[in-house]
């Protein structure tokens, strides 16, 4: 059976899976077969195993149905919560829930906590008969800011639309770091690097502790370097003969252009092969 094969491949016991995201198309024949299959894999487990389907929320997404189930199962693992299965009011009479170790949540329920990390199984069945089952496992707890960063200096990037705004931003960061309940310096640096927009006027501060960072932020007086991003374009000319010397003409018209040409490939002298950049825009003669 597919679910058993996935469990063997992942070296996990079926009973360790706390939630099954079913394909659950709502068909009279398909749902009972799927529910019985899950129940048979679990055997006589005494643990509560929950089963639901994201299709009850927004229907069948066809080609995206599998990934929709994976997203829901991932959120269940992350939040430690299983949402209710919408519109589930009357169980399918062809599914004998009283004889199966599975339940369908009608309200939000905590994810079952066991000795192993949280695990969820996801079913996805294709129109063409391609069936898949994925087992997802809870990731490790995110580390705190104090353990994510090793001891040493950190870099705080600063950027704004003009120099005055940049100096004002530096003062704001200094005020923030001096507060009694200020976040850790590495956390501030990480947020400034990853979560803020980066503008043309930029500078940075490197510090090993909060007091050093505040001192450098307060004394920031040198004009920050203005960084402008050049426009980058890529031209893929296929085999090359379509545009002989295209990079030479581009360089002549635009000084800021930067082009790259592959090195010439050795070939028979009779073919007189040369790099396209040697032709100056003229098609070569062939001997």
Automatic annotation (TrEMBL):
<dbReference type="InterPro" id="IPR001227">
    <property type="entry name" value="Ac_transferase_dom_sf"/>
</dbReference>
<protein>
    <recommendedName>
        <fullName>Ketosynthase family 3 (KS3) domain-containing protein</fullName>
    </recommendedName>
</protein>
<dbReference type="GO" id="GO:0004312">
    <property type="term" value="F:fatty acid synthase activity"/>
</dbReference>
<keyword id="KW-0597">Phosphoprotein</keyword>
<dbReference type="InterPro" id="IPR020841">
    <property type="entry name" value="PKS_Beta-ketoAc_synthase_dom"/>
</dbReference>
<dbReference type="InterPro" id="IPR050091">
    <property type="entry name" value="PKS_NRPS_Biosynth_Enz"/>
</dbReference>
<dbReference type="InterPro" id="IPR014031">
    <property type="entry name" value="Ketoacyl_synth_C"/>
</dbReference>
<dbReference type="InterPro" id="IPR032821">
    <property type="entry name" value="PKS_assoc"/>
</dbReference>
<dbReference type="GO" id="GO:0006633">
    <property type="term" value="P:fatty acid biosynthetic process"/>
</dbReference>
<dbReference type="Pfam" id="PF02801">
    <property type="entry name" value="Ketoacyl-synt_C"/>
</dbReference>
<keyword id="KW-0596">Phosphopantetheine</keyword>
<feature type="domain" description="Ketosynthase family 3 (KS3)">
    <location>
        <begin position="1"/>
        <end position="138"/>
    </location>
</feature>
<dbReference type="Pfam" id="PF16197">
    <property type="entry name" value="KAsynt_C_assoc"/>
</dbReference>
<feature type="region of interest" description="Disordered">
    <location>
        <begin position="254"/>
        <end position="287"/>
    </location>
</feature>
<dbReference type="InterPro" id="IPR016039">
    <property type="entry name" value="Thiolase-like"/>
</dbReference>
